Each structure stands twice: as structure tokens, then as C-alpha cells.
Amino acid sequence: MKTTSKGLTVIVYVSYSGLGPDHEPGIDPAALRETFRRLHAESIPTVHYLRPALPANSDPALLSQLLDHIVPFAQCTVVVGTKVTPAARDQITRLWPELADPHLSPETADSVWPRSTWTWLHHLPDRFTGHPVFQTNSCALAYVLRRADRAGVLDTPTCASNHCPPRQRDRCRQGDPGRPAITDSTIRAHLNRLGHPGLPFAYRHQIRTVVLARPAPLRDRHNLAQVLGVTVRAADDPDESLWPGRLSGAQPLVIDPS
């Protein structure tokens, strides 16, 4: 695995979505394909980021063509639906008129998908069997870094939807070997460092999961998870400015063509 002189692991995400210049002005698809080739030649781990999912890039033939270009060079692919915030709804409906339907609530969904993309993602062509395709960045990073899931994705519907190699699923079930034992004192000390002294929690050591009794900012939950190598569960902070996604229980919204 390619590292810098300081021993830091370098992983490069390259966004290659298949959207045309009307959606992504200034993007050169040929240059992106060359980027994948060059990174691979330098042995730099590369993740293909296929986002956002819009009607304009939802044709299964186009999606398969994208993977054909990058499978020889990327470690895996992450396919992500469209994230819709209240402030962005007017803008997104110009690209995706179906989202103007007043009966829909795309802002409360984890992500929004065209039906054709969702179907393609769950029934990939056989030629991509050996290429991992995830809906979650955390799973892609765990796979590339050869470590177990730390985001609580294992055995969830998202986990079932991922095209994840059996070896990686086994790694997630077994956990990372050599991880230090975690105690209540360890967790309490780290919560103190994050600025949450006295925050009540329960630690379920059998499944290496910390359950916080009060809401906590997403950045602190992620920090706790990554530094200690645990899964963290907590209610959403009402003042959260970051996208909580499926951590808060939000589900994908799949849109049928009109």
C-alpha cells in the first residue's frame, strides 16, 4: 500500500459520475479515466466515487460503462444517491422534476435514487462480481484498509445491499485483531477530551458498541468510533450541521420515473 515518507496511508477518491457538461461543467471524463490509470501505476489505493445518482446518469448501460473503465484500476466503488437539503430542493427539482411532488419528502431521506440506478445497484452485471460496490464510505475505507466495520453497518439492510467480498464480511464479524480492550474508564477519558465530561453511556463489550445516553455531535461520535475502534450509537444532536444520514435511521427514497 502506498504511503508517504511520514508513514501516512494515502487513499484517493476520484468522482466519476457519467454526468455531462450540463450537470458538471469543466469535467473531462478522459482525464478522469487517465487519473485512475496513473494512480494505479503508482500503487496508490483508489476508490471510485459514483455520485450523485440523478436521472441523467441512471441508464444501466451508462453505469456499466463507467465501471468497465475503472474496474481494472480502482479498489472498489462507492455509489451514493442524491442528498437533498431544504435549501437545495428548488435547485434539485430543476434537474429532477419528480422531486417537486408535494407528497414526497426528500429532505428527510438518507438519499434519493432513480429506480433504474437502485435496481442496477442491487443486480450488478455478472462481469463485476469481483469488484466491491458499496453504498457507504465507511465500508469502502474498511475494505481498503483491511479493517473491520466501525460504523455499525454490519448485518444492517445497508450491509445486505453492499456488494462486499466474503473475506471482508468475515473481517467485520471477527473484528480487528490486536485491538486493545476498551473499558469504561477508556471511554470516559475520551469523552472528557471531546468536551463531554459526565455524559452517561453504556458499553456493550460483546459487540464493542458504546451507547450514549444523550445526543452528541456527529463529529464527536465519529471521533470516538475511529479512535477507540468501537461502534457508537446516540440520538441526533438537534443543532447538528453535518449530514447524519443512516446513522439517524433515515432510509433511502427511490423514485419511479413519471
Structure description:
The structure is a single chain. This protein has 258 residues and is an alpha/beta fold. The protein is 32% helix and 12% strand. The chain is globular and about 55 Å long. 29% of the residues are buried.
What is the strand and helix layout of this fold?
Blueprint: E1 12-15, H1 29-41, E2 46-50, H2 60-70, E3 76-79, H3 89-95, E4 112-114, H4 115-122, E5 133-134, H5 137-145, H6 157-161, H7 166-174, H8 184-193, E6 201-204, E7 209-212, H9 218-228, E8 231-233, E9 253-255
Parallel strand pairs: 1-2, 2-3, 3-5, 4-9, 7-8
Antiparallel strand pairs: 6-7
Summed up:
This protein is α/β, with parallel strands linked by helices.
Output the keywords.
four-stranded parallel β-sheet; 9 helices; 12% strand; single chain; alpha/beta; 258 residues
N-to-C CA distance = 46 Å
Per DSSP, the total helix count is: 9
User: Beta-strand level of the residues, as a percent range?
Assistant: 5-15%
Largest sheet: 4 strands, parallel
Global shape: globular
Judged by helices, strands and strand pairing, the structural class is: alpha/beta
Arithmetic mean pLDDT: 89
The unreliable regions are: none
- Helical amount among residues, as a percent range? 25-40%
Number of strands: 9
**Backbone CA Rg:** 20 Å
What strand order characterises the main sheet?
1-2-3-5
Oligomer: single chain
Task: Give, in order, the helices and strands.
Answer: EHEHEHEHEHHHHEEHEE
